[in-house]
Design brief:
By secondary structure, this protein is an all-alpha fold. It is built from nine helices and no strands. The protein is extended, with a radius of gyration of 21 Å.
């Protein structure tokens, strides 16, 4: 339900703050681990995170929001390791990843709208593969144009306007 998702995302936000506040301790802990320990913990965390919806069923856990309490510790491990991983940092410096990061807000804004439009107009006109491929291409193209001609100029103007306001009225 929507309330479950609000609950989940609030916890991810709080965990993000905790990770940020505990960065020095996490860094020391991470540096104390051997490579095999890092790999083992990463695999365990990924498995727990990936199968967190199934674990309450497997172990017959019946209390509410179980999935979130199973998923959150593994998310902390994954995020913490990602922050300290040289390979992960290299992956994030990839041109494609940087591009997707630049248009991520536009992707977020446009994907739902385009999914609805594509479903209404094209779902019965093409194979599922072509449907999803064309939807993906249209979403990336729309997000790119939106970032280039709407978000980018708006951001630049808001920075300019805020500097002018500060000059006019002081700090």
């Amino acid at each position: 339900s929507f309330e479950d998702y609000k609950f989940l995302f609030r916890h991810f936000f709080v965990i993000g703050i905790c990770i940020y506040d505990s960065e020095a301790q996490i860094s020391r802990w991470y540096c104390s681990l051997r490579k095999k320990q890092i790999i083992a913990l990463s695999i365990i965390a990924l498995i727990i995170y990936g199968y967190s919806a199934e674990l309450p069923k497997i172990f017959h856990l019946r209390f509410g929001m179980t999935i979130h309490w199973i998923m959150l510790p593994s998310a902390v491990v994954i995020i913490s390791f990602a922050i300290h991983s040289h390979r992960f940092a290299l992956m994030l410096n990839n041109r494609i990843i940087k591009f997707l990061g630049k248009i991520s807000y536009s992707l977020y804004v446009w994907h739902g709208i385009l999914l609805i439009a594509w479903t209404l107009y094209f779902i019965n006109l093409m194979s599922p593969f072509i449907f999803y491929l064309s939807l993906f291409i249209a979403t990336v193209l729309t997000a790119t144009l939106s970032e280039r001609f709407i978000e980018g100029p708006s951001t630049r103007y808001s920075r300019y306007a805020s500097k002018r306001i500060v000059k006019l009225f002081g700090s």
